Amino acid sequence: MRGIIGVDIGTSLTKAVVFDEAGASIAQACTPSKVHHLPKGAVEQDFEQVLGTVATVVRDVAAQLDGPVEALALTGQGDGVWLRDEAGYPVRPAISWLDGRANALLTEWQASGVTREVFRRTGSGMFPGCAAAILSYLDTHEPDVLDRAAVAGYCVDAVVQRLTGEITVDISDASLPFVDPVTRRYDEQAIAACGLTHRRGLLAEPAPPKTVFRLGAAGAALLGLPEGLPVTAGPFDLPACAIGAGVREPGDGILTAGTTLACQVLTRDPTFDPEGEPAGMFLCTPNEADYLRAMPAMVGTAGLDWACRLLGIEVTDIGPLLAASAPGANGVRALPFLSSSGERAPFVDAAARAQFSGLSLESSRADVVRALCESIAFAARHCFEAAGLSGTLYACGGGVRSPEWTQIFADVLGRPIVIPGDPGVGARGAVLVAGEALGEPFDVDLWAGNSRTVEVVPANVEHYERGYAEYQTSLNAARDHWTL
């Protein structure tokens, strides 16, 4: 057993896990983070509270170990903007990737060609909760805040700065939207296209691959760990989950059914179609030969949470309700775009909104839940078609804890789904990256062996082919009518 604590700083939950040499978790802890939903689509987090969750889970897991902690491996949520000063203290609350205050700005950028210009240079689309849109919004509405800030970064590097004193950013976080994936450097013309050249100094330079930081005195006191302890930072949670799940061959993909419905496919070709739909992300990874074409849709488990509140049910009721309604949900259909900031993959539209159709007096709660779950699976298929899935498909996240919903995903996607045996997939990825950076890599084949496969039901695959065609028709019709 190596005492590397993997920490995944999620949007609503921070987890810490220690794994044995075979990749099985031997100690773990989690604690919630607070997400503040404010008027006009604003979504923020208190950085000090989030940092406190890291201290809580690290101390908890360290107390469970028989031996010493040897390193700390961090991953966490991406996008948004976490502004702080030279010492790493926030100059305003962190703005989440879920934020929608820049909806109107993003719509203007789409009309004026800004989003297309940035996509041509970086392969990444922009959405209201990405750093470019938020920074531009703040430059207009809160310029004094940007004047006080020393760095505009992300969740993981904000935590790293407080723990180690280093101002840095992982290349995966920096990828959206300003990094040219071929050069792995910021594209100055992409920054200029967003009108942010005068704020260029807020962007930290990406750390080289396999960079190892050291825990400073303040970080050591916060975590109760020795000063000088090795710390690795990144990649952020999307590529970390891909690494942790076992995605290693071009064409392999991973479905993360969490707050975000993240669909990613591995490629070793850094080129992209500059005239394609300006959506998704082209993510650099710790391995300079590997890239992830990511389509992180906004239609994840948050939609199921909404349905639970609306229908007066618990999350534990989802499985039985799915079982109580046949494929096709007795004619009920849905578009799942419930986020107040619209959609960001495989298309970007800040005005995207959900709809249900085919409802009658005979429709049940089970039909509504199944229609929503099927529509999210259709959205996943749309994303994977855009990302180029051709190999093995892996899956993780809270959504795949439901056997019924996982079966829907497999049947809609028309392929088996490999589910890693340990739920802490993001932390697994961070720890695997840490092993490489520390010069003591783990046996990735051994780690990948602890998994199960969900096979498709052929009759359902045929049914969902028709359902997906209907979904596309409804989506295309709806896009003509969405307005802010």
UniProtKB/TrEMBL annotation:
Keyword Iron: no
GO biological process, one term: D-xylose metabolic process
Protein's UniProt keywords contain Endoplasmic reticulum: no
Domain Carbohydrate kinase FGGY C-terminal: 322-435
MF terms (GO), sorted A to Z: kinase activity
InterPro entries: ATPase_NBD, Carb_kinase_FGGY, FGGY_C, FGGY_Carb_Kinase, FGGY_N
Keywords: Carbohydrate metabolism, Kinase, Transferase, Xylose metabolism
Domain (Carbohydrate kinase FGGY N-terminal) ranges: 4-244
Family, as annotated: Belongs to the FGGY kinase family.
Name of the protein described by the UniProt record: Carbohydrate kinase
Source organism per UniProt: Prauserella muralis
